[in-house]
Structures are given as C-alpha cells and as structure tokens.
Amino acid sequence: MEQQCKIGGESLRNRNSVNEDIISELPEALLLQILSSVPTETVIATSVLSKRWRSLWKMVPNLKFDSYYHHTFSENVYRCLILHKAPFLESLRLKIKHKADTFDLGILIGAAFAHHVRKLVLNIQFYEDNYVRFPRVLCSCNNTLEFLIVKFCVLLDFPYRVCLASLKKLHLHFVLFNDDASVCNLLCGCPNLEDLVIYRGCYVDVETFTIVVPSLQRLTIYEDKEEERDGGFVINAPSLKYLSINTLYGLGFCLIENAPELVEAEIHDVSNITNEKILESLTSVKSISLHLSPLEIKYPTGIIFCQLLSLELCTGKIEWWNLLTRMLDSSPKLQNLKLSEPCFGSNKDCPVGWKWSQPKCVPECLLYHLESFVWTRYEWQRDDENEVATYILKNARRLKKASFSTKPIEAEEIEKLETRRVMLNELASVVRASSNSCHLVFKSE
Fold first, then answer.
1. What is the mean pLDDT of residues 48-77?
2. Are 278 and 259 in contact (CB under 8 A)?
3. For residue 279, is it within any domain?
4. Do 186 and 317 share a domain, yes or no?
5. Which range of residues forms the domain containing residue 389?
6. What confidence score (pLDDT) does residue 1 get?
7. Is CB count within 10 Å lower at the N or C end of the chain?
8. What positions does the domain F-box occupy (predicted)?
C-alpha cells in the first residue's frame, strides 16, 4: 500500500491544502500588491495556482514587461492590456532591447492610454546606435497620465504642442530631441508639470534647452559631457522650489531668469560657464549644497544669501576654503554648516604656497547664528583643514554641536592611530567661543 510521506506527523497532501487555504484567505488588495512587484509574465503564470487566481492577474494595477526574454513581446503586452479589467492602470513599464519589438510601440502605448494609465516607463536600450521615435500622436490629448519616464534610445520630435494635461512628473534619461522647438512644445503642453528631471549625454541635439514652466517645483539637470560647446540652458520657473544642476562643463550659458520662490539648491561640478549668474540667481534659497572650486566658476561680488540657513560645501575641490570664506561672509543668517569630502573624485592638490586666508572680519553668521557644524571625512593631517576647523570653533559664539568624522585607518597604517589621537585632542583643546554650550563629537567612519 502506498504511504504518504510525513513531516512532523503531517502528510504533505494535508500541508499543501493548508498552504492553499492560507493563500486563498489573503485579502485581494494584498495579493494585488504582491503581484505588482514581479514581472507580469510571472503574474500570469500564477493563474494555475487556484480557481480564484485564474482571473486575479487581470486586476493587477502595475504591469511590467521585458523584451529580453520573449520573442513575442508585443503580442504578450497587447494581449495583457486587452484582457486587463482594472478600472485604471496604475503603471506600465516597458523595457525593450530589440528594435523589432518597437514596431507596435504606438499601439501598445495607445492601449495603455485607453486604460487610463497614470505612470508610463519606456526604457529602450539597443546595442546598435538607433533611435525610436516616440509616437507623438498619443500626446495630442491625454488627461490621465501623471508620471512619464523615457530612457535612452528614444527620439522626441514634437513639431506642435502636446497636450498632457495631468502630467506632474517628467523624467528624460539620455533621450534625443529633434530640435529646440520639440523641447518647448513638450514642456508647454504640460500645464501642471511639477517635477522635471533631465539627463543628457555626449550628443548635441539642442542648442538652447529652454525650460519655461510656470507650475514647475523641482528641476534636476545632469550632463554627462566634459567637452566645451556652445549653447546651454534657460530656466524660467516662477514656482520652482528645488534645483539640482550637476556636471555642466564648458556650456556657453546657464541662465536662471526667473526663480523667486527657490528654497533648496544643489550645484555640483559646474565649470567654465561664460556667465556668472548661477550663484547670483540663488540668493533666495534657504539650503544650498555646493561642490565647486572658486577657480572653476565666477563668484559675483556683492551678493547676499539673506535667507540661507543651511550650507553644505565639498572639501574635495581646489581652494574650497576660499569659497567657504565667501559663503560665510555672504550668509548672515546661516545656522547649519556641513563640510564633506566625496568618497571618490577628490582633488585637493594646490600649487606650493597657496593657503587659506581667514576672513578679515568674523562673519556675522559665526557671531550670532551658527548652531551646528558637521565635518565628514575630516582630514586631520592637513594643515588647511585644521586651520578652518580651529577658526570656526574659536569664533562661532552660538555653536551647540560640532561633529567630526574621519576616514578609517587601514591595518597597515596602524601607527597613524596615535598621531590622529594627538591631533584630535589638540582640536578638542581649542578654546571655543561657545565653550559652555558646544558639544564636541569625534567619530570614525
């Protein structure tokens, strides 16, 4: 007689029945949430688990497809969209690696729009140097799409204004625009756009990238190019709250014409810009992060960051301390100061004889407002960094906490431990202007 295998006195058949019952008892909302986190092809395969699951996949609000594994990619996507029965489609992610799978792209995106898709992610990565034109007819009138991400081998050609009335977030990663007008026609057709992210590569597709969006609140610009060239950016965003500009090398200009509501800004690796209006346009911010060398960008004279409360400065740039001096002098209300060195890409080497020059007068922010001073990856063996740290501790009258973290010392450099201890003790012994209230912290990363 056939015996059933038993584990802990319980048959496998009974245990499987129990597991099926447990799955069946899960709330449908939870099941749909779980299924939304895996590829849609896998979701469809779950229909064999039980009768209840046969149609459950048709209600999953988030769909994701990858053409790498299937020769019938377009057919699978279209079939799934046709059979989909949820009242709306929360998101559709298409990752395409073969040009043959893009022939029906307009039909697939059109089917998604018919299901009132709210988020669309189009990621096209070809091994060959080809671009697929985004089906512009689909942008003639759409009232449900709220978030659009387009990546890599996609050409955006809009000879007339699009109509994406509900779009709030637009992320463009290394795509190609047909011309300057296509940029304007795309952005002008998004009257409720709040978040714009632009990643650009080494190609030159647009000479003047004009961003005129009255509703825009967040803007991120990143360029992966180190060669000097003409052209640049023009930004007119009266509602802008956050601005991040990263790695703009050798552009002709970057004009921030209208951003009076700006609160937070991050400016990293911007050099050789022929105008000096970047920093001048940021005087309304309350928080700013600067990864710049004063040798790489012009610092306009006479500007005051009258609202600035928090400043982060990168110590991995040549003559960074002189930029610090200027920012301290220009920020009378500064309360929080953070100095940090990146884990890579640091360049502190200066010609012989160059050193930090202390401010002629103690900055107002040190006398009356600075409360927090944080220095990450503090290089205790460098005289210039010791000078800056000592100066701030001696002159910041309202300082409540100063925190220094140092790089770890490798096992083969164990003799440096004692030297570091001596140097940090010397820093701790500095007579602090706020000695009665300042809490000094040292730690190693």
1. 79
2. no
3. no
4. no
5. 310-445
6. 43
7. N
8. 20-68
289 is a domain residue = no
Q: Is residue 266 part of a domain?
A: no
Place of tokens 């710049």: 292
Tell me how far apart the alpha carbons of residues 288 and 242 are, in angstroms, rounded to a whole number: 10
315-330 per-position pLDDT tens digit = 988 889 989 999 999 9
- DSSP states of 267-306 as a string? EEEEE--S--HHHHTTTT-SEEEEE--TTTS---TT---T
Q: Domain boundary residue among 168, 193, 218?
A: 193
Who's near 352: CB < 8 A, 6+ residues apart? none
Cβ neighbours, 10 Å, residue 317: 24
Burial of 425 (C-beta count, 10 Å sphere; 0-12/13-18/19+):
exposed
* 369-396 pLDDT tens trace: 999 999 999 888 888 898 999 999 999 9
* 162 vs 113: CA distance, rounded Å: 15
Residue 61 in domain: yes
Q: How far apart are CA 45 and CA 299, in angstroms?
A: 61
Can you give the pTM of this predicted structure? 0.87
pLDDT for 352 beyond 50 = no
Q: What's the pLDDT score for residue 293?
A: 84
The residue from 171, 193, 215 where one domain ends is: 193
Which token pair is 98?
Answer: 């073969």
Q: What is the mean pLDDT of the chain?
A: 85
Q: Which amino acid is at 8?
A: G
Supply the pLDDT for residue 176.
Answer: 94
C-alpha distance from residue 309 to each of 71, 312, 427 (Å) = 56, 10, 26
